[in-house]
Design a protein that fits this description.
Helix 6 crosses helix 10 and helix 8 packs antiparallel against helix 10. The chain contains 11 helices and 17 strands. With 374 residues, it is α+β, with helices and mostly antiparallel strands. The protein starts with a strand and ends with a helix. Strand 1 and strand 2 form a beta hairpin.
């Protein structure tokens, strides 16, 4: 299974192509659009979310709600393109409009203009923008639907916002209610504290990051490999999550905490009771690069949004003079969006690994092969 994405933040549309989906997978467009709406939700979002009301359009690979086995192509139109056509038109753009030379700290601007031999950072930021993650969410929703057909579920929540952290432990079934809350947090007291902090940051022109946690429930053991490093399940998940804009750290299970603990307190002891089992899940469901049948637990750290209303110190790329970084439309906090995107990235990475092991040209073959596994 493979995803290819294309499109710019203020271009005509975002495009995705997924190769490798088996035929006869039932597709719910309503479910995809629900995930897209969740990506645009959450306390602390900016003005652009009021302009874009993302909806997916399936272009190829599906007929009458079922995949055909051919590449599935989809589009998400950018409603804001109407306001940016003179700036972003592929045929006749006025490149003197909305130029950006006051390269922004924390963005791809400076490195990008040097690497791609540009003088206007807009040619970089339009693709580097987190707007691209809408494609990841569509692909992730399709991956979730593929995995759900096998009895595998994915859910998550926001664990921390700018240092306001929920330290409680939750079971997988607890996570379903998180999306009903303004910040996708499960502890209402912590969420109220985080909301107040976001209001303060907005007043001072600042931004926030945070930590999200995603779980995969119901995946059987043996997905991934201990034989080749490129096929390790945790490596593939970490790669997928780290490729999401603004993510600066990924951990699985105890993650960095394990480094401070004794081995006897870290490793999950094995028992047998009508099957192999564990009483703890410090490994986060992955041992030796393979799923072990427990919940896969992934956490990702999102840095604060680098576009601040009060620009940071920088240098104009053309004049080489000190200036304040340019301001673009921005959020104060996009941690809810990050949670949805990380869920999607994890879902697609797991679906890739499952598809590689099971193969199968149609869902009947895939389901039979999965059910036959121990």
């Amino acid at each position: 299974m493979k995803l290819t994405s294309a499109g710019e933040s203020h271009g005509k549309a975002l495009i995705g192509i997924i190769e490798g989906l088996p035929s006869n997978l039932k597709i719910s467009v309503d479910e995809i659009n629900r995930e897209l709406a969740l990506r645009q939700s959450g306390y602390g979002r900016g003005a652009r979310q009021k302009i874009e009301k993302d909806k997916v359009e399936i272009i190829s690979g599906v007929r009458n709600g079922l995949t055909l086995g051919s590449p599935l192509t989809f589009a998400i139109k950018n409603a804001d393109y109407e306001n940016w056509q003179n700036v972003m038109s592929p045929e006749s753009a006025d490149t003197s409009l909305r130029t950006l030379t006051a390269v922004r700290p924390g963005h791809a601007d400076l490195t990008g203009v040097i690497k791609y031999d540009q003088t206007d950072a807009r040619n970089i930021l339009e693709r580097a923008s987190a707007r691209e993650t809408a494609v990841r969410v569509v692909a992730g929703s399709l991956a979730k639907q593929y995995l759900a057909a096998l009895g595998v579920s994915i859910a998550g929540y926001v664990k921390s916002v700018c240092g306001v952290t929920d330290e409680k432990e939750y079971k997988f079934y607890d996570l379903a209610s998180a999306k009903n809350n303004p910040l996708f947090m499960l502890d209402s007291n912590k969420e109220n504290e985080a909301v107040k902090l976001i209001d303060e940051l907005k007043t001072e022109g600042n931004t926030a990051g945070g930590i999200v946690e995603v779980r995969v429930n119901g995946l059987k053991s043996g997905f991934g490999s201990c034989m080749t490093y490129a096929d390790k399940l945790d490596a593939k998940i970490a790669f997928a999550v780290m490729s999401v804009q603004a993510i600066k750290g990924v951990e699985i299970g105890l993650g960095f905490k394990a480094a401070d603990m004794r081995g006897s307190a870290v490793h999950d002891e094995i028992y047998y009771n009508n099957g192999f089992c564990r009483k703890t899940n410090n490994a986060g469901g992955i041992e030796g690069g393979m799923s072990n049948g427990e919940d896969i637990i992934v956490r990702a750290a999102m840095k604060p949004i680098p576009t601040l209303m009060k620009g940071l110190n920088t240098v104009d790329y053309l004049t080489l003079q000190p200036v304040k970084a340019a301001g673009e439309r921005s959020d104060v906090a996009a941690i809810c969006a990050a949670e949805i995107v990380v869920e999607s990235a994890v879902a697609f990475a797991v679906a890739e690994v499952v598809s590689a092991r099971l193969s199968g040209d149609n869902m009947r073959e895939v389901t039979e092969r999965y059910n036959s596994l121990r």
